[in-house]
Design a protein that fits this description.
The chain has about 180 residues and is mainly beta. The protein has one domain. It has 2 helices and 12 strands, in the order ααββββββββββββ. Strands 1, 2, 3, 4, 5, 6, 7, 8, 9, 10, 11 and 12 form a 12-stranded antiparallel β-sheet that branches. The longest helix has 8 residues. It starts with 6 loop residues before the first helix and ends in a 5-residue tail after the last strand. The relative contact order is 0.20.
Length: about 180
């Protein structure tokens, strides 16, 4: 299997949790609405005002491939980040933007995410728009639970596909 890992999961794992008062440190740079099987989640794509770092970015890989990564998190009532956390990765190589992967990190931990894309379930970028630095889209498909994600990913025993729909909108920092 191939894995599509970006710097975003590492950034999220290393980043400190939301402060007790999120208004003092974090703002929302975007949102995600996720339907995962029979569960629905409203997520925020945060921007850390203390570190001036967003949980979404656009980068040019090798000066040619526009890549967009965004991480949504479910905020708890006290402002602490909750579970699940969802990362999406898109890339434009030639022509239209393409959806590469999505990972849901939940109570199963970072080594057993639900994955849509190269390692996991089928997926479609059903809609995509980018006006200036505002990107939005709809992703539809199925997530599949993996194990050994950080070393030797494989489909978890007994895993069955979970249908999903992800709608997102984010204001991306400009390309540098």
């Amino acid at each position: 299997m191939t894995r599509s890992l970006s710097a975003i999961p590492a950034l999220c794992m290393a980043a400190p949790a939301f402060a007790a008062d999120p208004a003092n440190r974090y703002t929302a740079m975007g949102t995600m609405t996720v339907q995962l099987g029979d569960k629905a989640f409203d997520m925020v794509i945060p921007f850390d005002t203390e570190k001036q770092r967003g949980y979404a970015e656009q980068t040019m890989i090798m000066g040619t491939f526009l890549t967009i990564n965004a991480v949504g998190q479910v905020p708890e009532p006290d402002g602490m980040p909750g579970s699940p956390m969802l990362q999406i990765t898109l890339q434009r190589r030639t022509g239209d933007m393409a959806f590469l992967s999505a990972e849901v990190f939940d109570d199963q931990g970072f080594d057993a995410p639900m994955v849509m894309g190269a390692d996991g379930g089928d997926r479609t970028l059903a809609a995509f728009s980018m006006e200036g630095n505002i990107a939005s889209g709809v992703i539809a498909g199925e997530f599949l639970r993996l194990t050994g994600y950080s070393s030797d990913p494989k489909v978890a025993e007994g895993a069955t596909p979970v249908t999903a729909r992800i709608e997102w909108k984010v204001e991306l920092p400009p390309l540098e």
